[in-house]
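WARN no homologs supplied; continuing
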Amino acid sequence: MAASQLDRPLHVPHAKYERLIAAAQEVPAASTIVVHPCDETSLRGCVEAAKAGIIAPILVGPAARIRMAGRNHKLDVEQFEIVDTENIESASAAKAVELIHQGKGEMLMKGSLHTDELMRAVTSSAKGLRTARRISHVFIMDVPTHPDTLFITDAAINIAPDLDTKRDIIQNAIDLFTQIGLGTPRVGILSAVETVTSKIPSTIEAAALCKMAERGQITGGVLDGPLAFDNAIDPQAAKIKGIKSEVAGRAQILLVPNLEAGNMLAKNLAFLSKADAAGIVLGARVPIVLTSRADSVRTRMASCAVALLYANARRQSVALPAA
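OK structure emitted
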């Protein structure tokens, strides 16, 4: 899917997400371990995503509670495989990770359990799903007043990332952007100001990250920073400040300095600009659909769609013959 497919008239709501969902429906559904789906929201999300042909769910959790939630909300869960566990969140999370190790799923999807409980099982040094890459989160945001889909990272996992962690966070986001077919991303590294100053450490790290990209330590994207939020996403703001680069005013991936800044930015866009905020965790052995209880069915579908497009790219890279 070309980057231009995400451009659309500003007055058309949800168009970027609809295009992601449509693209996902063009590839085979992914076997998806849905962890502890014991309420209406999490069950409805996976039922609708399965109906759309995006995921093939395996429901992991206390079977009696899952079936009761399905009956109470008129959702057909009997069409899916249900793996019964004890009626505690940690048991569901542990079993889900075990099934990934057994090759039963290409994706994980959070149900009604707490994020911390799921991530504790995922990041376990003994039995988790860690890789050499740092695990990080990306919000894929459809902002009604902005022409591009915005990737905001990391606003959910890494609290105060250091330089090396930021390098992995950026690389994870670039890999996602490119592998789901959006082309070469423009990466804006955010701070409070667009000049490098020792008084604001995030500006120094931004400059270092740009140099790392020049030296091939970060690949696949075009980086610029430090940038303030306005001159990262608004061409006129960048012009007024005299910032000339491929990224300034046109950033598609926004690296935030820390979790607090990212979380506030994403929620401001969601609640003040009425943006949709799909979420996915990267850097583990499989992509993880990390949704919120407040997410709409469309947002959950978009999260599944992005994860499927990413998982499908991984399938294809594995299937490529050796050179």
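Residues 14-130+295-323 form a domain with the Rossmann fold fold (CATH 3.40.50.10950).
OK
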